[in-house]
Each structure stands twice: as structure tokens, then as C-alpha cells.
Amino acid sequence: MLARIDNYKKGEDRAFKVGLYLRLSREDDNYSLSESIVNQKNYLTDYVLEKGWTLVDTYVDDGYTGTNFDRPGFNRLLRDIEDKKINLVITKDLSRLGRDYIKTGYYLEQYFPDRGVRYIAVNDGIDTFADNNSNNDMSPFKSVMNDMYAKDISKKVRTTLDSKRANGKFVGAFAPYGYMKSLQDKNKLVIDPETAPIIRQIFELYVKGYGYTKIANILNDEGILPPGLYKYKNSNYKNPKSKHCLWTPETVSKILLNPTYAGNLAQSKYRKINYKLKKLRTVPRQEWVVVENTHEPIVDIDTFRLVQEMMRKKVAVNSLSSQTEHLLSGFIFCGDCGERMTFTATKKGNVYVICSKYKRLKRCTRHSFLESELEFHILNELRKIVAFSIDCEKLVKAASSKAVKTKKNDILSEIDRNEKRLKEIKRAIKSLYEDKLKGVLTEEDFVELSREYGKEREKLLERLSQLNAKIVSDTETESEKEALIKQVKDFIGFKEPNRAILSKLIEKIEIFENKRVAVYYKFKKPEEMR
């Protein structure tokens, strides 16, 4: 490397071909007007003219973070260095080159010297061709400080965004499919009249018993744009892969799982690995930030909860398989080993349910039961229970008793989560105050973050008041009763017995080797029929 450098003439008498590199990131844009691209360019151009050097080109990266060196302007600068179009790179200061101390050190200590390129950071007094320049010796320390600054900014931005999420404010770059950002408030979601009907269609199809793949095929056959392609065509989202995407089972599944469609904003589903990498990791569902009643729902909460129950039981059958749709799919378990029962067909066309553990591992026993006989047994018993009941109202009351208990448990869980969050906010505000005293936070940052936490605390206290009121009067609304009565009446007639209705009435079914069938209902079976 030294031999190569010796081939170049160092010093002011050399004819330098200059490339100015200008960079401004979003976080820098709010700090000082002097850091603007125009001012950087004017300042450095005057510097070059004063020196009498030849200005070959200007390379600009506006809106790019310094922690990532994969920038279009910087990449063009490197290509021109390789083509020997320039041999002097100038920036206003070292942080404009980059804020990753490892990569910055690589360019200063290896890349530029190896290619005989001089580098100058004007305000920092760094000049790689100036011998005995103490500022050059300080460049590694400046790079570390720039890196720490970037890390600190990232932490502050993340804290602000976390606070907004906890307050039920949408902070994503693009609204989820089915919604769009409000023109009056970019942090609030409003229904997109063009795509919301597609979301409703997906939920309706699933409740009717269609699987993820079958729903995806229906949407593709109807020529409906999938989320990625719709976003590509209707926003500045320009991922080229989106131009060729289709509806997939995974896309359908993600939509069905998303609480946002029930009016409860769900965020923090993905997190960056660290402040230097763009790569994201998936966050477990239990760690999502979900805030209730933040916007208008596309599907009602009862439908959403029913779908979650059906998905938990894996009720829907994958339409890619050769299996037909089975009414009892997802409800049946082996009474002896506890594994799920699976469906298998004979050459004569008869369908049996057998223990999946036996089918896969040849452990346990077959527990074979003819599907048609099992369906008849279950439906016939339900008919008897309904007939025994005096009227539908009693069955509704029995069927909803467990749901009321579950709802109460959900309320208690939410109260517990909110109380824990209030304690976290209290600790966070105390930590912010300590950071302000230490000089880590400015007074302005402290006031802004404290205000965000204060808003979140007020919202949590208001929500706790509502939840406690619900606990006191945990009675069902008339609309909920009427909806359940309608479902039970539909089931009584068995005009369209479907898995959605069964999910309301049956918890699980167990089959034992001796052909005994045990049915666990979501309501209390009449004493006389036990």
C-alpha cells in the first residue's frame, strides 16, 4: 500500500480533481440550518475555488443516515474514484462522511490511502495528506463520538415512537391494507373505502369455513390487488418485488390475526436488530403494542374474536390438499393420548377419523371412527339438548356463560397490563429527569418526552376507569344476546350447520378406542341429560 502511495505526488502543488460529498439525514435536518445541503455545497465550493483546485462533481445523499454507507451518492463517488475521475474528496466535517466508526475508519485508513486519494474534513481540520497533523490523529476518536451521537439520536427517536405507539398513535410509514392515514392527523387511521370491503370479504369467507389458500385463490381469481402491489401502485413505496406479488396464504393469515381490523391498533410487530442495520426481526404476538378503540373498525369485535377462536382450533382446511371440508375439523382429539384426530379416506371413498399420533408414528392406536357416524352422533345430541331446552333463551344463556367469564378475564388482564404500564411510565419520567440533570437530555427533549408520557398516563387512567366500570356491571348487551340467539336458532334448524356455529357451542370432542365419544360444551348441559 505504501509503495502505491509513493507513486502520487503529495502536497499543494499537485493537480487535484475534487469531488464534494454532501450528506444530510432526517435527524440532522432538525438541528441546524447550516447543515443543509445547499449551505454545505456553497461552503465547500468556496473552499475549493480559494485553493485553486478543479471541482469535478458534487455527490449528494439527502435524507440518508450516516450509519449506513449504502447510499446512492456515495456509491457514485466510489465508482468515480475507481475510474480515477477524482483524487480528492472533501466534506464539511467527518460526520458527513459517516457515523459508523468502523466503516469510517476503513475509508480513512485503508480505502482512500490505497487509491492515493486525499481526504479533507474542513471543519474538523482533517487532511490525510498533511504530515504531522494532530487532527488526523484525533479522527478515530471523532468517529467514535459521531457513532455514539447516532446511537443516542436513535435511542431518543425510538423512545418517542414507543411513547406514541403506547398512546394509540399510528407511526408507520404506510397504513395497513384496508386503511389510510387521516388527512387531518397522520397518526390516525381512517377506513379506505376501496380496500376495506376486501378485508370484510376475507373475514366472511373464513367464518364460512374457507381456508387460507382457498381465500387467496379466490382473491387472485377475482383480480384483486394484494397489499404489496396495491401499496406499490398507490404510494411512493417502490419495492420492485411488489410488482409481481399475488395473494398468498400467509398474507391472508396475517390479516385475520391483525387486531387493527377490529379497531384496536397493533404495532411493534417488527424491530430493527440495531441502529446500524435495516434488517428487521419478527416480534412475538404477545409483545405487540395493542391499544384498543383507536379508530373505526372494519370488522366487528365479535367476528374478530370468533375468527381467532377458529384459527386457534385450526378449523379451516387447506384447500391445496385432496381433503374435502370437514365439519368437525379442529374439534376432535384422541381421548387416550390427547393428540389431534386426522381424516383419512379408504379406496371405497369412506372417510374415517384416526389418531394422528398413530398415523405419523405408529404409536397409540387407530381410534378409528367413521366421519359420517361421528357427525350424526354430535349433531343428534345437540338436537336433543335443544329440544330439551324450554326455549332458545335458556340455551343462549348457557352458551354465553363461559363467554362472559372469558370476557371478564380479558378485562382483568387488560387492567393488570395498564397498571404495569403506569408503573413503567413513572420510572421512565424519573429516568428522563435524571438524564436532564446529567445533561444527557436537553430541556426541550425532556419537556417533549414528558408531555408524551403524560398523555399516555391520562389515557391509561381513563381506560382503567372504563374497565373497572365494566367489571362492576359485567352484563351482556341486548345486541350480543340477539346475535347469539340468531346463531342458535340457525343451528337448531340445521339448515347450514357450519364450523363457525360449532365454535360457539363446542370446546372439544374426545374419541376413545372403545368408540366412546366425550363432548365438552361451552355451556352447561341440562342435569337431566347427563
Number of strands: 17
- Poorly predicted runs: 1-11, 29-34, 315-323
Q: Please identify the top-level CATH class of the domain at 2-157.
A: Alpha Beta
Beta content comes to 5-15%
Largest sheet, if any? 5 strands, mixed
What is the CATH superfamily classification of the domain at 2-157? Resolvase, N-terminal catalytic domain
> CATH architecture of the domain at 2-157, please?
3-Layer(aba) Sandwich
Describe the 3D structure.
- With 530 residues, the protein is of the alpha/beta class.
- Among the domains are: 2-157, Resolvase, N-terminal catalytic domain (Rossmann fold), CATH 3.40.50; 190-310, Alpha-Beta Complex (Hect, E3 ligase catalytic domain fold).
- Helix content is 49%, strand content 13%.
- It has 18 helices and 17 strands.
- It has helices spanning 2-6, 26-29, 37-51, 72-82, 94-97, 101-114, 134-166, 196-207, 212-221, 227-234, 249-257, 301-312, 356-361, 371-388, 392-438, 443-472, 478-493, 499-505, and strands at 17-24, 54-62, 88-91, 118-121, 126-127, 179-181, 189-191, 265-267, 270-272, 280-282, 289-291, 332-334, 341-345, 351-355, 369-370, 506-511, 517-521.
- The chain has a five-stranded mixed beta sheet with strand order 2-1-3-4-5, with helices on both faces. The protein has a three-stranded mixed beta sheet with strand order 12-16-17. The chain has a three-stranded antiparallel beta sheet with strand order 13-14-15.
- A hairpin with a 5-residue loop joins strand 13 (341-345) and strand 14.
- Helix 9 (212-221) packs across helix 11 (249-257) and helix 15 (392-438) runs antiparallel to helix 16 (443-472).
- It is elongated, with a radius of gyration of 32 Å.
